[in-house]
Every structure is written in structure tokens, then in C-alpha cells.
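A further point concerns the way the authors explain their paired sequence and structure data. Nothing conveys this as quickly as seeing an actual entry. An entry of this sort, consisting of the sequence and the corresponding C-alpha cells, reads as follows:
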Amino acid sequence: MSEASLAAAEGRRSGTETRLGLLCLAVLVVLLFLAPGLVNPGILFVIGMTLIQAVFALSWNLLFGFTGLASFGHAGFFAIGAYFTGAALRYDFHLPFLAVLAVAGILGALVALAIGVVALKRLTGIFLAVLTVALTEAMAKIIGFSPALGEQDGLGNIPRPVIDLGLFRIDLTHGDDYYRFLVVATVLIVAALWWVVHSRLGRTFRAIREDADRARFVGIDVARYRVISFMISGGTAALAGALSAPLTRIVTLDQVNWLASTQPILNSLLGGFTSFWGPIVGSAAFSTINYFTRGFPGLSEIMVGGILVVVILVAPTGILGLLGKLRRRALGKGGRK
């Protein structure tokens, strides 16, 4: 078979796989939207938290997997969105809920901008990671001494919102209705991040990740684009936090500490940080493990740790990387036959 025929066959196969992938995604979104009528409230809450953790992990992986920056204090951005939204709903800021979400995302992006302008021109790698941890811990101390934010007890009794669009109102006070809103919001955020990653901006991020010095040589303002990536990442993490507050109806310091910052890292590594979909797969896998081991204290952490060790040793690119390797091996054997 000629090279042209092989290329045409590969193109048809790639097109078929793309269409199949889009169909699977559409089916998954429909199932997620219909989940309130299919599963019990406990599982529905787990699915909702998985969606939030998936967005949170995607925000972190935009930095690490696509720009080559590491943040070990990403929970600080999550907390900004969660505490602002919780306070806005509990103390009735007289802002439409969609405006509250927008402001939460903007706050996260502005804080990321402030950190990026000061730090990213001088610090990368482990130094940036340590700085973000320190700033997140400082934020936790400030919140812990803020009566309006609940101090050590957290901000509880957060009401769920009602969206007033003028011609009609969307009542999200019922848990199932808010869950459906969360599904729609997650799909929109994931679609926006997918567009960013596959746009010219995303290609610039990857060029910086591969070789920052070469990127500078070809005229890319590395510091500027790193700040832009940090802003998008911080704003998205804040949006994840903003969406979580009405779902859980409480925001606590557990969402600010450094352990909370490890969650998006684990999800991204488990699913595969080299793939856009890896953090989503990792979040689903992590939640599934936690759910089925919930009756065994400590077992969940042991199993997740063991799985991570196996993944790192067998497939450093995560679950999707391992599946991709097995697929290529199977196709290779099929081609030889």
C-alpha cells in the first residue's frame, strides 16, 4: 500500500475516532443531566463534587501540563471563589448569581495577575510552587481570624440562588435543579478551556513549556504569556470554588490548606497531565475509589497512593497515557497481521 493510501486511511480512521469521541461526550453529558432521576442523592452529590474537582484539576493542569509551571497552593484561588460566593449568597449582596460567578472568576484572575507580575519574572519551578503554598497558608490564617467568614468554623448555611433573567426565573434552591445548572456550567467551562488549549494561545503555552529560551528567541514574550496562563488558571479555579459553595452550602478552612491543593495535582497525574482530558478522567477515578472505599477509614488513601505509584512506574503519563500505549500496541499488532 502506498504512503498516500496509508495517509488517507489514517485520516479516515482519525475522523471516525473524532466523531465517535464527540458522540460519547454527548451521551455522557445527557446522562449527567438526567442523573437526578437515575441515582440517589448521595451519589448525585458525589457526581457534583467530581465535576467541580474536574474543573479545578483542569485549571491546575493548564499551568503544569500546558505551560510548564507548578503551583502547590492552587487551593487559594479555589477558596477565593468559594468564600466570595458563599458570602455573597449568605449576606445577600444584591448581585445576580451569574454576576457573582463572574466576579468570583475575575477576583481569582486578578489575584493571579498580582502574583504573576511580581513572581513569574523571577521565579519558576520549585520556587514558584513554594511561594504559592506560602500565600495560600497566609490566606488561611487571615480567613481564620475573620468573623464575617466564619473564622475556624467556616461559612455555613449558604442558600442556593435564584437566577432572575427578567422574562423568567430559574429556581436553583432545590438540590437537583442546582446540580443540573452545575452540569451546564461545567460543560461551558470545559469547552472554553478546550478552545484555549487548542487555540494559538494554547500553542504558545506549549512552546513555552517545551523550551522557554527558544520561545524567547523566536519573539515570544515568555513572562507575559506565563502571566496570562496563570490568570486563566486562577480565574478557572475560583469559578470551581464559586460553583462548589451553593452545592455543599458550607465553605471551611479545609478547602484552603495545602492538602486541598494536592487534589488537582493527584487528579491530573492520575488521569494524565499530558492530555486535556486527563484531569477529568483522574477526578472521576479518584471519586470512584473514594466512594467504594468510604466504609474503610484509611483504605481510600492507601489505594489511591498505591494506584499512583503503579501509574508513575508503568505509565508516567497517567491512565490515558497507559490506554493510549495499549491502543497503539494493539493497532501495531493488527497492522502486522
Notes: The CA atoms of residues 6 and 41 lie 51 Å apart. The first strand starts at residue 162 and ends at 164.
